[in-house]
Write a structure and sequence with these properties.
Elements lengths: L11 H14 L3 H30 L1 H17 L9
C-alpha cells in the first residue's frame, strides 16, 4: 500500500489531544491519525450498508419473500443443532 503525504489544518488544541492519544498508544501521529481515519471510513460504510438493508427490509413485499425463502430453506436443510453434519 502506497502512502501520500498531505497537509491539513488542525486546531492546536485538537492536535495536542491527538499527540497525547498517539503517545499513550505508542504510535506516531501519522499512524494514529491513519488508524482513526480507517475506523471512521469503515463506520460510515457500515452505516450506509445498514441504512440500505433497513430500506430493503422496510419493503413489505421483500420481507414476505425473505420469510418464504427462509421457510423453504428450513424445510429442505438440516437443523443447525443436528451434529451429524
Amino acid at each position: 500500500m502506497s502512502t501520500v503525504k498531505t497537509a491539513i489544518a488542525v486546531p492546536d488544541e485538537l492536535l495536542a489531544d491527538v499527540d497525547r492519544a498517539a503517545r499513550a498508544r505508542g504510535e506516531s501521529r501519522s499512524k494514529y491519525i491513519t488508524r482513526v481515519l480507517r475506523v471512521a471510513v469503515r463506520a460510515r460504510r457500515d452505516a450506509d450498508i445498514t441504512r440500505r438493508l433497513n430500506e430493503l427490509f422496510a419493503d413489505e413485499t421483500a420481507v414476505k419473500e425473505q420469510k418464504k425463502g427462509a421457510a423453504r430453506a428450513e424445510r429442505g436443510g438440516a437443523r443447525w443443532d443436528d451434529e451429524r453434519w
